[in-house]
Amino acid sequence: MDHDQITTSRTVVIAGASGFIGSHLRHSFLQDGFHVRTIGRRATDDAQWSDGVGKLTSVLEGSFALINLAGRSVSCRYTKRTADEILRSRTETTRLLGQALAGCTAPPSVWLNSSTGTIYRDARDRPQDEQSGDVGSGFSVAVARAWEQELLDAPTNVRKVALRTAIALGTGGALNPIINLSRLGFGGRQGDGEQRFSWIHVDDVYGAVRHVMDRPSISGPVNLAAPEAVTNAALMARVREYFGGAGKRVGLPLPAWSLELGARTIQTEAELVLKSRWVHPGVLLGSEYAFRFPDLDSALADVAHNTGRGLLPVPLG
Fold it and tell me: Which domain holds residue 175?
């Protein structure tokens, strides 16, 4: 294998590398000796979305894999403006990448495009896997379906994978507001507490991405979620145990009406907490992916080891 082939096989392109998951993937790939090119909105990216299809094609040319994580945060109120931004930030970037890939003479062998585990219905009766899961309804589901359709319709024969990702746990990110509630003494169940909470440790996001990249037989939707989904009540109890501080023993419950009120106050949507997301990693388990953090206790213990005391920063959309 010559130098160019070695470089190609160890080069990945990450679109949307500035977010919580993207930053972690970029760091992990670099740590493992990969070359990383990025597409985004920063001056330091190898290409920006405004550069046009030709520039995107040049960045993708000769790489081994494309990982697209671009999309506006959903932690916001769903006004017409923000709803349009959420949809366009996903579909338009995916469409541009498809056009860019169509122009490559040496395209990557695989395109992993972000999607979301919230594409499934509010499920409390059984887990939702890639084969038997039921697609739900509502705004978030409509966005996910449009997002995946853009991937499917893209004019390229590159292997395509839709990463239906559950809540990613790590230092920072989606866990911070839950930790803050616990530390303020409001770490009890949210709503009736019976809604399922599917999650994945951010290290397993990277591990699963590597796993899928290296298996040409895997295409289509892939659920990125740990095998153990827990109820909201169980989640909050474990968060109190690992992060609660003074609120460890007492966790006041938050009924649905209070969550709706609080969501309006901090400019987000209560659906992010109240919807039951029971996402099962059928494809990963069927292809013998070994989770580093298969259960919530091991994941929370790892996050706690790297989390400071006091209230934590919570970025809003």
Answer: 3-305
